[in-house]
Amino acid sequence: MKKQQNKSFIPFKKRDIILIFAFLIAAFFALAVMKNVSGGVTATVIYDGNTIFQRELSEIKEKIVLSPAEGIEITAEDGRIGFTSSTCETHECIKCGMLSEPCRTAACIPNKILITLTPNGKTHDGYDAIGY
Amino acid sequence: MKNSFTKMLAVLGAVTFMLASLTSCGTEKKEYTSFAMGSVISAVIYCTGNEDTDSLWNEICSLVNSSDKAISATDESSYISRVNASGTAKVNEYTVDLLKKAVLLCNTLNRKLDITIGAVTSLWGFTGSTPRVPETDELKKTLDSVNLDGVFIDDTGLSVSLKEGQKLDLGALGKGEACDIIKNKLTEKGLSACVTFGGNVLVTGKNPNGQKGLWKIGLRDPKGTENDVFAALTLDASGGAKCVSTSGSYEKCFEENGKKYHHIIDPSTGYPVENGLASVSVVCPSGLNADALSTAIFVNGLNDTSLMWLDSFGAEAVFVFDDGSVFVTDGLNQNFAITKTDNYKTVTYEEATK
Q: Do A31 and B217 lie within an 8 Å CB cutoff?
C-alpha cells in the first residue's frame, strides 16, 4: 500500500527524467552558444541624422556605390565599406579606410555622414566602443 | 504512450519559456547617432521598454548643443568666441560655471593644461584646413598671452574679461563636459548605456550583453589607423559611470619639411609635446576630469606628479610610449589586455621612467 503511494507522487518515469535533463542540458548549451556567437556585421550609413543604407556586409555580393550628397561616394564590396570620395578638405573620412570589423566607424563631419558597423545578434565578442 | 507524449510536450514548453525569458532578460537595445561639436555622438542605450529613450536622446542632444553654443571656438556667436573677439563679453551662467571649473582644473594640474592657449593654437591652425608651423618670433610673442591670471570671471555680473591678446580655447574639455551632461541624464533615469563622443567613451550601468555585465572598450593603436585597436579595457560601470578620454599624438597632425607635428601643445613652449608618449588614456568617473587629465598628463609625461593627479581624481590611466612600451596604473591592471602583443608590451613604472 505504502509503495503504491510513492509511485503516484512522482508523475514521471525514470526515462522521462533522463529526457528532461537532456533537454535542459541542450537548452543551456544552445543559450551559451547564442551568447557567444557573432552573427555578422551590419553596416549603417547615416546622413544628417537619417539612416539611408543598412545591410549586412556579408550579404553584399556586388559592388554598391552610394552617393548621399554631391561629390561623396561610399563603396561597399567584399564585406567592406568605406568612403571612397569626398568633398571635405581634410579627407579624414577616406583615411579611415574600408571597414569590416564590428564597432568601427568612419565619419565625414563637414558633410554629416557616418558609416557605422554594428555586430548582429544580441551579444558579440567584440568591443562596445573604441576610445581614441 | 499518450500520457508520456503530453508530459514531453509540457517539458518542451517549459524549456522554451525558460529560454525565451533568459535570452530577452527584458532589455531593449536602442541606438542613436548625432553630430555635435564637430564630432559624432553614438549611443547604445539599454532599456526595459518603459522609458521614452527617443525623447531622452533629443533632450541630451539639445543640452550638448547648448553647451557647444556657449563654448565653441568656431561658432562666432558663442559666448567664448565673443569673449575672444572683444576681450570682454557678457556670458550666461553655464559658461561662468564651466570656466570656473576649467580654471580650477588648470591650476590643479600645474597649468600643464591652460585654457588661455587659444592664441597659440590659432597660430598652428590645427582645426583648419591649412595648419602650419608658426614663425619663432610670432610664437614667442603669442606665448606671452598664455596666462590664466589674465582671466577675470565675474560670476555676479555674468561676464568674462581677458588680458589683451588672450584667447580662450576649451577644445581639450568640451567633449568631456558633454560626456558629463550625457552621463547625468542617463544615470538620472537609471539606464545602462555606452556612448562614444569623438574619441571619448562613456559607459554607465551593467552591460546586458557583456560578460559579467562589463563593458569592453578598445584603445586605438597609436601607430595604426583610426579603427585599429592595440588593447582592450574591461570596465565595470555598475557602481557608477566611467569615462575614458584619450590624448594621442596621432590626432590632428600634419607634416612640414618631413617633420610630423601633432595638436597637443605644451603651454610653456608653444610647441607640440615631444616626450616619448604616443597616447594617454584616462579612466575616471567624470568626463570633464578625464579630458583634462589626459591632456595635462600627456604634456607632463609619466612621473610621480602625474600619478598623484590621477590618484586625487580617483582616476586610472594607460600610458603608451612611441617604442611600444605600455604602463598601466595599478587599478586597471586586472582590466587591461594588450591585443597586439607583437608591437606592444607592458612595463613597470621603473622601466617606463628610466
A: no
d(CA B252, CA A69): 25
Residues of A in contact with B200 (CB under 8 A): 131
Task: Say yes or no: ipTM exceeds 0.90.
Answer: no
pLDDT tens digits along B113-141: 999 999 999 999 987 778 999 999 999 99
**Can you give the pTM of this predicted structure?**
0.81
DSSP string for residues in A29-83: HHHHHHHH----EEEEEEETTEEEEEEEGGG--S-EEE-SSTT-EEEEETTEEEE
Strands B215-220 and B325-328: unpaired
**Taking a C-beta distance cutoff of 8 angstroms, is the pair B321, B278 a contact?**
yes
How big is the A-B interface in CB pairs under 8 Å?
A: 117
In terms of Cα–Cα distance, which of B32, B79, B23, B80 is closest to B56?
Answer: B32
- Whether the CB of B215 is below 8 Å from some CB of chain A: the reply is yes
* Rounded (5°) CA angle A15-A20-A23: 125
- Measured between CB atoms, does A30 come within 8 Å of chain B? yes
Instruction: Give the pairing of strands B336-338 and B277-284.
Output: unpaired
Looking at chain B, which residue has its C-alpha nearest residue A28? Answer: B19
Contacts with A107 from chain B: Cβ below 8 Å: 39-40
Pairing of strands A129-131, B215-220: parallel
Grid coordinates in use for B299? Answer: 604634456
> pLDDT tens-digit profile of B197-232?
988 999 999 999 888 999 999 999 999 877 789 999
Q: Which three cell numbers stand for residue B187?
A: 544615470
The cell numbers describing B38, all together, are 564637430
Residue B219 at interface with chain A, using a CB cutoff of 8 Å: yes
Quick one: cell of B35? Answer: 553630430
DSSP SS3 for B146: coil
Does residue A90 belong to the interface with chain B, where contact is any CB pair within 8 Å? yes
Q: Do A132 and B251 touch (CB under 8 A)?
A: yes
Residue A18, chain B, CB below 8 Å: the answer is: no
